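ok new one. same drill as before - structure tokens go in, u give me an amino acid for every spot. 702 of them this time. try not to just spam alanines like last time pls lmao
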């Protein structure tokens, strides 16, 4: 993102309204004037709308809701662009510009959400004859707006209302600072290694990346992976290979300790923010008359209660714990036998290393054996071929259509097989630790909706990954897990792009209960274990030889490797999230970190280190929208495994049956968006209630 002002030929780009963002012409200097202007316009429009509503005799959707939606659209689009850039093209100038208007945006949103006049009109509409004539999408939008107004404190008066507003503003600032601290803490740490024995065991791809990162930090470094120096960071594409392959126990320990204490030191310490965020969330819940933040969170989710979530996780824990204990005993025995140390006690930094050695021996493949077959461009071709086979869509690169925020970003269009345009998406595939946050995600650029002139606005998505970049003539070579991640995020994008709903507020992923939104993404991961799909996307980047089927079978067999441990880890994180947001009382003498230690210890096979500060980097629940909702991953995984079961029953080798089932999936799960309750949509697709049994079978636990 440029930080210099662009030629003012078209005015401020953020004031142009929903369209493909002109990233090349955007600067940090545009943010404050645009957002300030849009906030003022929204308040003025809503004030006028309130006056009209008071005089309205017969409320309808078009007179109550539609003007609000139209009023919100310009600010929602512009603020979305700003937040997107903060995640993928961070800079001091952009941070400062965003922070300058952050409070104004929050106050504007609350001003509208807490409007008694709008709330009264919505509740009158709910009781009016016109409401009964609405379709499911419009009905759910109205009910969601009423719910959200109530959860925004519309009923609060005087001091309570002011207190709620101030807490909301502070919370937004704290969650932003939490993410910034995590990004800064990651950039501040690196292992710079200069001796060959320090990087012994690392695969060639990891060495090349480490050498390239060293040269980026120090232009005088050689950049030669055989010579060094090598720079290892806390970014996952750098951290994970080192933990899994580096032979130096001492260096693995040093890196591990740095990783588990990220953002817990000095000016980037998130620990005080954690306590304050939890305090604010609890106080806001109490102001709303709710017992906890979890109660507020679950008001907009599928799960009916914390007790229902606990019941699911108790079932998963009972199935997973014996497997996890057996896995750990087996791993310990293997490490002792292989190392010749009969009394070896595994430490946390040993587990990834020995788990990778056991996986290599048992399934006879390493990530470096697989990477050459998964060049990004070929993986994309295979992924798009699958989408065409299942959903009758065609994805094509069209980079000339859109401006991008980094030269590595791609732009694709999605069309029906008859050529009709359906959607588009940006793909930002590579890790950039200097200005891009870690992880992978899908976000919304534009929603499918009808414009004021009646024409159709097509949906556009952002797909963000953090895999290893190309190196010279070597393309980006992906681990199998990175292939799964790409499929996962593409699944989110499919739900956003293939919606048939034409009301933005219920189109795509909008208005879908949060614990159902992972269904399409996790569903898509299953195709990574489907041989015809892999045949279409796995090809050696040099020899053009296909991935050997025997190697694929070993990868598939490894799918349930250490599944027990992984389930226990997910259960622990979900339980930790719920306890912090449901039963924990901020200000307790031991603090949130004591809750972390107790919950993780109850589910871990190795006790966590005393200095473990997981919460300081748990951005999902403190900066990413998953507060009292981290359980959603497993909740939705039950749905996704069951949904994939329909394809298995149809016959995974029957192209006609797959296409027929795929179109049924598209016309229900992908098309309905938030226009209907996800359980109803699932029943339409599957013909029955969801079952946990397919997931347990998939994990090798049933």
């Amino acid at each position: 993102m440029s930080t210099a002002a662009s030629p003012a030929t078209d005015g401020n780009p953020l004031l142009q309204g929903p369209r493909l963002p002109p990233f090349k012409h955007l600067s940090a200097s545009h943010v404050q004037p645009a957002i300030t202007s849009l906030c003022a316009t929204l308040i003025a429009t809503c004030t006028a709308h309130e006056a009209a509503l008071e005089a309205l005799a017969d409320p309808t959707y078009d007179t109550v809701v539609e003007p609000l939606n139209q009023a919100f659209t310009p600010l929602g689009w512009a603020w979305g662009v700003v937040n997107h850039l903060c995640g993928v093209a961070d800079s001091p100038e952009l941070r400062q510009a965003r922070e300058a208007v952050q409070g104004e945006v929050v106050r504007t949103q609350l001003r509208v959400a807490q409007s008694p006049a709008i709330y009264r009109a919505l509740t009158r509409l709910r009781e009016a004859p016109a409401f009964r004539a609405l379709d499911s999408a419009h009905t759910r939008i109205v009910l969601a707006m009423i719910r959200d107004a109530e959860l925004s404190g519309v009923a609060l008066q005087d001091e309570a209302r002011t207190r709620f507003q101030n807490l909301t503003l502070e919370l937004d600032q704290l969650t932003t600072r939490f993410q910034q601290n995590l990004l800064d803490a990651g950039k501040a740490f690196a292992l710079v290694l200069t001796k060959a024995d320090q990087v012994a065991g690392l695969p060639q791809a990891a060495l090349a990346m480490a050498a390239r990162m060293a040269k980026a930090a120090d232009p005088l470094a050689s950049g030669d992976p055989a010579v060094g120096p090598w720079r290892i960071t806390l970014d996952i594409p750098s951290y994970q290979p080192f933990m899994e392959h580096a032979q130096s126990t001492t260096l693995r320990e040093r890196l591990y300790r740095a990783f588990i204490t990220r953002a817990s030191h000095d000016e980037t310490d998130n620990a005080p923010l954690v306590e304050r965020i939890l305090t604010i969330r609890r106080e806001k819940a109490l102001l709303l008359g709710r017992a906890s933040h979890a109660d507020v969170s679950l008001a907009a989710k599928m799960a009916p209660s914390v007790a229902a979530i606990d019941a699911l996780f108790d079932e998963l824990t009972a199935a997973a714990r014996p497997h996890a204990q057996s896995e750990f005993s087996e791993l310990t025995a293997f490490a002792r036998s292989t190392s010749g140390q009969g009394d070896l006690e595994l430490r946390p930094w040993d587990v990834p290393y020995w788990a990778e050695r056991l996986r290599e021996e048992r399934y006879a493949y390493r990530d470096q054996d697989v990477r050459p077959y998964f060049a990004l461009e070929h993986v994309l071709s295979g992924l798009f071929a699958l989408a065409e086979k299942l959903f009758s869509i065609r994805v094509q690169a069209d980079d000339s259509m859109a401006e991008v925020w980094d030269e590595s970003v791609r732009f694709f269009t999605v069309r029906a097989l008859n050529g009709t345009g359906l959607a588009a998406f940006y793909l930002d595939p590579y890790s950039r630790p200097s200005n891009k946050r870690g992880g992978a995600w899908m976000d919304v650029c534009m929603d499918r909706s009808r414009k004021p002139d009646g024409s159709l606005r097509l949906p556009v998505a952002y797909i963000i990954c953090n895999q290893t970049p190309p190196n010279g003539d070597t393309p980006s070579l992906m681990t199998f897990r990175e292939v799964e991640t790409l499929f996962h995020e593409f699944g989110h994008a499919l739900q956003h792009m293939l919606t048939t709903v034409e009301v933005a507020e219920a189109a795509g992923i909008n208005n879908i209960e949060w614990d159902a939104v992972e269904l399409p993404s996790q569903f898509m991961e299953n195709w990574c274990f489907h041989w015809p799909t892999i045949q279409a996307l796995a090809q050696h980047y040099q020899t053009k030889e296909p991935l050997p089927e025997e190697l694929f079978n070993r990868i598939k067999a490894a799918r349930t490797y250490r599944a027990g441990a992984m389930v226990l880890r997910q259960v622990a994180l979900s339980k930790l999230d719920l306890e912090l947001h449901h039963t924990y009382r901020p200000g307790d003498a031991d603090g949130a970190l004591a809750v972390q230690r107790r919950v993780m210890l109850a589910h871990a096979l190795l006790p966590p280190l005393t200095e473990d500060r997981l919460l300081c980097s748990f951005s999902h629940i403190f900066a990413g929208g998953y507060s009292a909702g981290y359980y959603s991953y497993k909740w939705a995984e039950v749905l996704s495994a069951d949904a994939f079961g329909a394809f298995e029953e149809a016959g995974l080798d029957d192209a006609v049956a797959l296409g027929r089932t795929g179109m049924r999936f598209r016309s229900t799960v992908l098309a309905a968006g938030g226009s209907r309750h996800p359980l109803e949509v699932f029943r339409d697709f599957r013909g029955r209630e969801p079952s946990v049994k397919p997931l347990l079978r998939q994990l090798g636990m049933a």
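The mean pLDDT is 94. and btw The CA atoms of residues 336 and 343 lie 7 Å apart.
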